[in-house]
From TrEMBL:
Compartmental location: Cytoplasm
All copies of domain PCI, residue ranges: 196-367
GO MF, one annotated term: translation initiation factor activity
CC per GO annotation: eukaryotic 43S preinitiation complex; eukaryotic 48S preinitiation complex; eukaryotic translation initiation factor 3 complex, eIF3m
Keyword terms, alphabetized: Cytoplasm, Initiation factor, Protein biosynthesis
Subunit structure: Component of the eukaryotic translation initiation factor 3 (eIF-3) complex.
Record protein name field: Eukaryotic translation initiation factor 3 subunit M
UniProt keyword annotation of tRNA-binding present: no
Species lineage: Eukaryota, Viridiplantae, Streptophyta, Embryophyta, Tracheophyta
Principal localisation: cytoplasm
Family to which this protein belongs: Belongs to the CSN7/EIF3M family. CSN7 subfamily.
Natural source organism: Panicum miliaceum
Any one GO biological process: formation of cytoplasmic translation initiation complex
Amino acid sequence: MATIVNTTEEEPMLAVVRFTAELAWADAGPEVADPEVTRLCLEAQEHILAGRWLDMASLMLASADLLLTSPSRVPDKDLECILSVICSLVTKAGSEDQALQITDLICAKLTQQPDDKPALRLKVLFSLYNLLPSPYGKAFVYKKALKLATAGKVAECIIPSFKNIDSFVSEWGIGNLEQRELYLAIARILKNHKGTTKEYFNFLNKYLATLKGSDDESATIGDAKEEAVAAIIEFVKSSTLFQCDLLNMPAVAQLENDEKYQLVYELLKIFLTKRLDSYLEFQTANSALLKDYGLVHEECITKMRLMSLLDLSSHCSGEIPYSAVTSALQINDDEVEQWIVKAIAFKILDCRIDQLNQTVIVSRHTERIFGMPQWQGLRTKLGVWRGNVASAINTIQANKVADEGTQGMQGLMIR
């Protein structure tokens, strides 16, 4: 009994096979081309009938190879349409494993020549990503897209997606090792892209945080020294970053005893735990090192003055005398208010200035390091706040009951 298969142009897959086959054999003449085109179309029909979607993907990709290697022969819109039809095969696969095999074939083909229309190839990869139901498949395609964007020098096409990485990682359910590889790949893309300094620092932090310091990671941590140094330098250079957890990370802590990078670690420690006088002493002895890493002394002084102001705030009982500010920041009396205003503008200090008593009254300040002690302190404050709220609610309820009782007594007396 014969089975009827739709072979009209309305069948997208057969249309793609026919179009690409005709293009591939166009120069051979009709005597040679027509039989080959017919053969490929019949083969495609057989695959569709049997549900052999992996074989269909191989056939379509082989037929479309000419378009990928010589895309100028086909307009970009047509090429994108053809590749999208091929990507749609993952939705027809009979199992997740088969969908992943098809995905692997498509990704291999699209990433073969990354410098040839990379933006178009990347767009198709994202279409493939959206078609996949499997979290593992999505993670696989995204990593391929990262490599393509890097090799094809089209980072601007994938950087906007980085803001969603946390939700992606949660959706994919990938482990610590895969997260580490992902964050490092993203950090390397951002490193060479202008205007993404803050994002670069954030992903360096994410990468370094995945290195826990266990025995089985000792070799890996050793390989992360360059990234640890890069994160330190980015923090010191930044005029807007005043808090980080780098000192608490094993990948950074290893630098303390490293002959090559020991001074870089010491510099970080100064910025996070000490004041301006310590920095000036370090700079006098290591000015060449600062220049080697592109650090500008005047900019470092500016940041260390603000860091010193935060250190004063953390050790005061809510009030800082002007004299303490002038001493710690090494400034004149008439410059105190200027630096207080600067700290307020950076949103690292909430305070008011008592000019009459020459004091700064601090209500909140940024912690330079936010590690376990800071979390414990926050927990204590939240506990006190919760207790105060509960006490206030109990008082309000008690007063309400008393008022209702008083009103009831007044009603009885009136009667």
